[in-house]
Structures are given as C-alpha cells and as structure tokens.
Design goal:
With 543 residues, this protein is an alpha+beta fold. The protein is 66% helix and 9% strand. It contains 23 helices and six strands. It has helices spanning 2-27, 61-68, 103-111, 145-185, 187-194, 196-202, 211-224, 228-244, 254-265, 272-280, 289-314, 318-327, 329-347, 350-357, 363-391, 396-413, 415-430, 433-447, 455-460, 465-479, 484-495, 499-508, 518-541, and strands at residues 36-47, 52-59, 76-83, 91-96, 117-123, 132-139. A six-stranded antiparallel barrel has the order 1-2-3-4-5-6. Helix 4 crosses helix 8 (228-244). It is elongated and about 90 Å long.
Length: 543
C-alpha cells in the first residue's frame, strides 16, 4: 500500500502543479505583457553604485485591477529603484516587495527567486517634469510557478533527508551502544520480564525473552516520556531484532506492523513541544491540552492496535478471522463497556473537572520541570545501564563500541528510504495538491462539524512534523492559543504522529519493501486521534 500512496503523492502532486500552471497561464493571472499605467516620482538625490535612482511608484488602480483581475479601492503605492530616466526609451525598474505589497506581486517576486525584488521595464513618451515620470510598467513575465516550486522542493527535501540521516548517526551510535551494554548485562531482559503480560498481549508471536521485546519497551517508554532522541534508536533496534524472527525478510511481519501502529499513534504523557509553543503564543493556560492530548493519543493507540490485529487476521483468510473474532468477543465487549463508561464520565463533567484542575500547574513551572527532566533523564538512563553492566562484570567499552557500529550502519541505510518519502511529501506540499485535497474533503468534514481552519493541520500532521509545527504556530497567532481552534489544533498535534516519516525510517532500516497494511493501520490511528481530539475539545471547550 505504501508503494501506491507514494506514487499517488508524486503523480497527484505533479498533475496538480501542471493543472494550476496551465490554468493560470490561460487566465493570465500574472498580467504577462500587460502595461500598467503608472507614475514614478524619482529621487534625484539618491543614486546607488549601479546608477539607479530611488523612486516612488504609483500604479493606477483601474489599470492594476484590469491587469490582475482585482478590485482594489486605491492606487497601488510601491517603492523601488529605476535606471536614469531617458525620454522615449525604456528604463529598467526594480520594485521592492514587502508585507504591504499586494499578494500577487509577492508571488511573482518569489516565483523568479527574488523574494524581495520584482523587476520590470518602464516606458514613457512624456518628458519628465519635476522628477515625475508618467508612463507604463511591464513587469517580468511569470509562468509555471507551481512546477518551479515542485522542482525546488524536490532538491530541498532530498538534501533534508540526507541531513536527517546524517544527524541520526551520532545519536544512533550512542544509544545503540548503551543498548548493547544493557542487553549483554541482562538489564533489557529484566525490563521485558516485568512487562511480560502487556507485551505478550500485544506481540503474542514474539518470545518473551527475545531482545526485540526489551527494545520495543524502551522505544515506547521513551516516546511516552517525550524522549524523542532516544525513542528512534530504540525503535530501529527493535525493527532489526523483529526482522530476525521474520520469515520473509522483505515483507513486514504482524509484530512489526503492530509496533509501528503504536509508534504512529504518538502516545506521549506530556506534549512538551505543543505546550511550549502555546506558552510562547501567550496562552493563559498552555497545559490545558495535556488531558485532551492523552485522550486523543490513547484513542489513536487503541484504534491502531485493533486495526493492525484485525488486518493481520483478515490477511489469513475469512475462516481464521472469524475464529479469532469469536475468541475475542468478550474482550471486545469489555472494551466497549469501558469506552461507554469513559464517554458517560465525560458527559457528566468528570473529565472536564480534571482538565480544569490542570490550571494549578503554571506554564513556567511545568516547562522548567520538563527541561529538568529532559536534562536528567538521559544521564540517568546511561548511568543505570553502566552500573548494571559493572555489577554483571561485562566489558562495557567493547560492548558499547559493538553497538555503536551497528547504529552507524543503520543510519546510513535509511537514506534512500528517507529521500524517497520526503521527496514525495515535498512534491505534494509544493504543488498545491493539499489545497485541492482540502476542497475535496470539506463536504465530509462539514458533516461532522470539523472546522475548515483545522483541516490543514489534520492533513499535514501525518506527513511532516516541521510542517505541522509551522501550521500550529501560525494558527495560534491568528486565532489565539486559548480559543476553541487554538486548543483543537494543539490537541491534534499532541494526539498524532508523522506516520509517513515513521514508516519510511523504520522499514528502511531493515529493507522492508512490502509494508502490507502498515500504512492503513497508521492512518486509521491518525484519523482516530484527530476525531477524538475534535470530540473532546468540542465537548469541553466549545461555547
């Protein structure tokens, strides 16, 4: 399925870019070859080294509206520089673009790589009077903006993929070195035995004493505690150990898919990044999303695990599936009863009281506590692993080096997979395809009362962590961090994870080519997290 989605992202993205570009050219959106009636006031006392004078540019409102199909009420006033004016001859003019410039001109400047400068030619048949020129401006021609953006994005994201992989080398080497010490000393086995009932339920086909169990526990624990720099190395180590038990080395096993479904659910006890951004945006209660995010991420985790288990049994045939379903009927009933109890408690206001009581935690004290925890957690883990190794009298240094070598190899191995996935995501983002997809999904989201303003976050979160972080930051500044939309968008961020990145990195580390139903389980988990976030925030914060 990952193959089809990857292909779809690229083809739909490029197809959308071509469609938009062709439409804009046929509609002459950027007024190519159009002459804009203008007046230019030249400052003869200000001249740069290139012989250009500073000037004030006034574009006639009617001319601008006709050329760009706009409806401005006033003339467009710009500033820039112009070559020494000569009667009856064209002069080169550079227009300075800023936040007050009409949006269409900003787009044109960015399209030709000038961001802050838009070039053109000024022509006049009227002699200059008191440093005032009257004539027409023909701006530089603009075409294929989306295709240019896609091309630029492909190159940028390929570079980003390599930077991510290279950045992982040191972290991977360090953590897998520590893991090797813990594994040789037997500490990982001790941790695995302590959590055997949980792991046996989630991964029944994996022997309880297998190293993969300990690695998965370390990964899930690190994710829940918000230790992202430790979670990825532990997860990649777990994938390698799971692949040792995998009869088909290029095909994802049921255990791998269940493990990744838990990862893509993104269950974190304290969404530190979202809280910090809310605090920076001036929220009166940035920690209010702790409860809502845990609720959303728990729903995502439950749906992700159930989806992975259900798809696994369905892949074995109808007979196996119905036999499994019959054996789990009591478990399903108990789960439904617990969900009903939770929903009823929410409607009765019990959960709301818990959320509101989070007010006693000040943002500053929580952020300081998180900072202290993050500072001490990693040294604490390392010291405990090493002390346990000393007690077991193993060669700490040699074991660390052996594990570190493995970490280096894994980080290098994932580069092609990262390049492939990030390239597809870059094309999809830059082409305008996401806007088209939002338009297509809007009738569905309107039916469930999902705000259109939160849809970009819902679509971006599974694709890109940095992209969704940017969307959240922008929306909090526009709508306010304590508004309904501000809380909803923050909760969505804390209830989901970057599914495509996780699949690309984890499967790439063990050369899995057939991901089977992993993407479907991950996206169902994301959908559940988003819908749960909408449900809980609407219930607790809507007016």
């Amino acid at each position: 399925m990952l193959n089809y989605v990857w292909t779809f992202l690229i083809l739909f993205g490029i197809g959308t870019a071509v469609f938009i570009d062709v439409y804009e050219i046929s509609d002459n959106k950027y007024a190519n070859k159009y002459l804009l009636s203008s007046q230019i006031l030249v400052d003869s006392t200000s001249i740069d080294e290139g012989g250009k004078y500073s000037c004030k540019i006034i574009i006639d409102r009617k001319s601008f509206n006709n050329g760009f199909k706009k409806s401005l009420d006033n003339d467009v006033i710009l500033f820039g520089k112009i070559n020494k004016p000569k009667d009856n001859k064209n002069s080169n003019i550079d227009i300075q673009v800023n936040l007050h410039t009409p949006e269409v001109l900003i787009e044109m400047a960015k399209a030709n790589g000038g961001d802050k400068i838009l070039s053109g030619e000024f022509s006049s048949n009227i002699a200059m009077s008191n440093n005032l020129l009257t004539g027409k401006i023909k701006l530089e021609e603009i075409s294929f903006i989306q295709i240019k953006s896609v091309t630029k994005s492909i190159i940028e994201y390929a570079g980003i993929a390599v930077e991510i992989a290279l950045g992982l080398i040191g972290i991977m080497a360090m953590w897998l070195g520590i893991m090797k010490v813990g594994e040789t000393a037997g500490l990982i086995s001790v941790i695995a035995r302590m959590l055997r009932p949980v792991t046996k339920f989630l991964f029944p086909e994996i022997p309880s004493d297998h190293p993969a169990v300990g690695s998965m526990i370390m990964n899930i624990s690190a994710n829940m505690l918000g230790l992202g720099n430790a979670a990825t190395p532990f997860g990649l180590k777990a994938m390698q150990e799971l692949n040792e038990l995998n009869p088909k080395k290029d095909t994802a096993s049921d255990s791998m898919i269940t493990f990744l479904a838990i990862n893509t659910a993104g269950l974190t006890l304290i969404p530190a990044s979202a809280i910090a951004i809310r605090a920076a945006a001036g929220s009166n209660n940035p920690t209010v999303i702790i409860g809502t995010s845990i609720f959303g991420a728990m729903c995502a985790t439950i749906v992700g695990v159930i989806s992975a288990k259900t798809f696994a049994k369905l892949s074995g045939g109808k007979e196996i599936f119905f036999k499994w379903l019959k054996g789990k009927i009591y478990s399903l009933l108990i789960t439904l009863i617990l969900i009903l109890i939770l929903v009823m408690s929410i409607y009765l206001g019990l959960f709301k009281n818990i959320i509101n009581n989070i007010n006693f935690i000040s943002a500053e004290s929580l952020i300081n506590a998180l900072s202290l925890f993050s500072t001490l957690a990693i040294p604490f883990i390392i010291v405990n692993f090493l002390v346990f190794g000393i007690l077991k009298k193993i060669n700490l240094y040699d074991n660390f080096i052996e594990g570190a070598k493995e970490g280096f190899n894994i980080a290098i191995k994932i580069i092609p997979f990262l390049v492939a996935m990030l390239m597809a995501i870059g094309i999809f983002r830059a082409s305008g395809a996401m806007d088209i997809l939002m338009i297509m999904l809007r009738p569905i989201t309107n039916l469930i009362g999902f705000p259109a303003e939160a849809l970009p976050m819902a679509l971006m979160r599974p694709l890109s962590g940095s992209g969704s972080l940017g969307i959240m930051t922008e929306n909090l500044s526009v709508f306010g961090p304590d508004s309904f939309l501000g809380v909803l968008i923050s909760t969505i961020y804390g209830s989901t994870e970057t599914t495509f990145y996780v699949l690309a990195v984890y499967f790439g580390s063990v050369n899995i080519k057939n991901s089977r139903f992993a993407l479907a389980a991950g996206l169902l988990a994301d959908t559940a997290g988003i819908l749960a976030a909408l449900f809980i925030v609407k219930l607790l914060f809507s007016i």
